[in-house]
Amino acid sequence: MDTTIHFDSLGLSAPILQAIEEKGYTTPTPIQAQAIPAVLEGKDVMAAAQTGTGKTAGFTLPILESLSKGNRAKPNQARVLILTPTRELAAQIQDSVVTYGKHLPLSSTVVFGGVKINPQMMKLRRGVDVLVATPGRLIDLHNQNAVRFKQLEVLVLDEADRMLDMGFIHDIRKILAFLPPKRQTLMFSATFSMEIRNLAKKLVRNPVEISVTPRNTTVEAVKQWICPVDKKQKSALLARLIQENDWKKILVFSRTKHGANRLTQYLEKKKIKAAAIHGNKSQNARTKALKAFKDDEIRVLVATDIAARGIDIDQLPQVINFDLPNVPEDYIHRIGRTGRAGLKGQAISLVSADEFKQLSDIEYLLNRILDRKVIDGFAPVNDVPVTRLDKRPHHAKKAKQPHKDHRQGQRSGSKGRGHNPRSQRGNNNR
Ligand code: AMP
């Protein structure tokens, strides 16, 4: 008996099924199979799902279906509001809305900070069925009366955990205050901490709860190993690895924006085409860099953790940690970029002696010791001490005063700023 769930059994109509077929999807992912019927029934949804699970189509498809039945948006009104933490994610969601809705007469637009507000105001003037937004810019537009929510039917909160991490809680509260209480609410988050649950209590009513894991969990699909190397040799080692292995598409993570710029310049000097994305780059520069990377015009994209969050790049065989993240969970997020959709990926971390603590924390979280491979000519003078899986929780060991190269990463930095929501403005996308 064939127990496969098909898209045409989920309650979607012909124009949407056609768009799905044109996109090349044959079967719904688990989150789609569960979320689509629930959303179509008008239920609130609370879903634990990361990027890579197909969650975007999971909420976009049924929303478009519901919208196609109601009245069109009036001037300056939005019928669906999708809130997301970063500009890249906002742009990607908008792309999905356009793709899946291409056979429907619905309008949509995306708004985010870092670009001129006037063109966005113009687009909102006639009203939109779907509005994708980052929180800061949405508040600015609302303050200027460019958008109203009298007709709002659905609110989607995407990557809720990341929004809280980035200090958007005040902005979210402000936005909730101007939305009508009678609406459908869908909440997506990679994790469900107490903080997220508290937020959810105010947001969703009798939600359908869905929990899925990414199509590939890092540990099985991705070959992971570390290269012990002296800090000052890392750039040269990376260039060597790229050239010797003839890698064509490499996502490199850097802990700092400055480090990302320096490395990009170094690679360019070595005739390896590279670009950096991080919070100090203009929106245009970032969009351009991402497009060039996707189109294979550049070989290396150097990104900071937050700038790379949620970016969806198909067929990414190589992820390099130029330095290890301070937050061990970020390692998982980083390497989750590769090995997607059944493809084989590898994640290589260039580790110097001063990163011993980060390495131990990551191995503790993974519950395994990562293989080491020293590259000829790059054997470190300051060797990385041997790690072991310690049964004691790591935080029990008092961390030493951070070395100056171990400054707080951007992620913890942004948490600190979270107390002042205004300081997030135009900054909502590292
Ligand atoms: P998301 O988790 O929404 O970021 O989606 C991750 C990736 O999965 C995107 O590249 C989608 O285009 C792709 N995708 C979404 N749904 C399906 C599906 N049903 N079949 C195959 N690929 C899909």
- Strand sequence of the main sheet, in spatial order? 3-4-2-5-6-1-7
* Overall structural domain count: 2
Kindly provide the radius of gyration, computed on alpha-carbon positions and rounded to a whole number of angstroms.
22 Å
- Uncertain regions spanning at least 5 consecutive residues: 215-219, 391-430
User: Which bin fits the share of residues in helices?
Assistant: 25-40%
What is the CATH topology descriptor of the largest domain?
Rossmann fold
Biggest sheet character: 7 strands, parallel
- Roughly what fraction of the amino acids lie in strands? 15-25%
Count of helical segments?
Answer: 17
Content-based structural category? alpha/beta
CATH class of the largest domain: Alpha Beta
Overall average residue pLDDT: 85
Report the count of strand segments: 14
Distance between the termini: 49 Å
**CATH architecture label name of the largest domain:** 3-Layer(aba) Sandwich
- What small molecules are bound in this structure? adenosine monophosphate
CATH superfamily of the largest domain: P-loop containing nucleotide triphosphate hydrolases
Anisotropy-based shape? elongated
Task: Provide structural commentary.
Helices cover 38% and strands 15% of the residues. It is α/β, with parallel strands linked by helices and 430 residues long. It folds into two domains: 7-211, Rossmann fold (3-Layer(aba) Sandwich); 222-372, 3-Layer(aba) Sandwich (Rossmann fold), CATH 3.40.50.300. The protein has a seven-stranded parallel sheet, with helices on both faces. A seven-stranded parallel sheet has the order 10-11-9-12-13-8-14, sandwiched between helices. Helix 2 runs parallel beside helix 3. The chain is elongated. Residues 215-219 and 391-430 have low confidence and may be disordered. Adenosine monophosphate binds at residues 25, 28-29, 32, 51-57, 312, 314.
